[in-house]
Amino acid sequence: MQGLQRKIFHATLYEFIAIVIVTVAMRWLSSKGTAEAAGLALSTSVVALLWNMAYNSLFEAWERRQASRERTVARRMAHAIGFEGGLVLMTVPLIAWWLDMSWWEALLADLGLVVFFLFYTFSFNWLFDHFFGLPVSDTPRQ
Question: Which of 41, 61, 102, 116 has CB 3.0 to 4.6 Å from 23, enough for a Cys bridge?
Answer without folding.
Answer: 41
